[in-house]
Amino acid sequence: MRDREFLLIVTSVILTLIFSNLSLFLKSFSSTPFASPEIKQAARLFENQSSRKSEPDFWSKIKDLDFDRIPPKTETAKTEKTRIVPKKTTKKPVAVKPKLTIPYRRFLFIGDSVMFDLGIQLQYTMKQKYNIADTKLDYKVSSGLNRIDYYDWYARTKEIIQDYQPDVVIILFGGNDTQDITDFQGKYRAIATKEWQTAYQERVEKYAKLLDSSSVRKVYWVGQSISNKSWYAKLFPMMNDIYKNASKSSKKIEFISTWDTFSEAGKFAPMVADKSGKRGYVKVNDGVHFTAHGAKIVGDLIADKMAADKILKSPKSPKKKP
Fold this sequence. Notes:
alpha/beta
């Protein structure tokens, strides 16, 4: 009895497996040597019917795909490349080298006897305060740019610049130029007339061009200071304007005004205090030449101007040892 029940159970399991996947059973059984030709034919028919049924489902799924929304391989590659964010390379800042400035070493002082007093004081100040000893004073008494027949400052200036090779030139003329003049055309021009001013301006401009075309790096043209003599008080402002105008057309030449250095309320002051507060007489009786005290005041004015222009630099004090 038990054998019969077991056989029924096995038979039912086999039938269940066969009917749950009949196609797989027929395909497997048809490949065995026990299958008859009729079973093999039934397996092929069943396989063809299942393939015909699944084929429409396959093509319907294919039709549902939107091929326009699928990017081509090239575009995909491009987009992938664009998505790659390159690493930012931080460049180190390049240190800017400071421009090398050639120091001003040689100083030349040119002019008449008034420049003699001023030049001596400047040489002393530059040596004591700025440690500059390479200076040269070249002056001629009773000379100027008027009487070039007496002393040719054009020729002399070319000669001394070529020989001495100065970096800076400081000029002071005018005290002896307050007289009648003969212009470059040989015509006589009376003092203080318009013709005289034109002739004297031609002299000054010629001298300025000579300096501008030379090897000199910087020129300071010192103007005349106020005087207690009415004659000079009338002519010096006129001459200072000529010096100033000539300097404007040159990159090298700079005009230094000293007119108000010895004045109070627009009038000549015989006694003026220097930078230390010490008072003293500034000019001798002729109203043109400086006293030693006056030369020091004007010399300090010029030195301060050169220091402001970086022409003069205070020497560095040596470091103290610990």
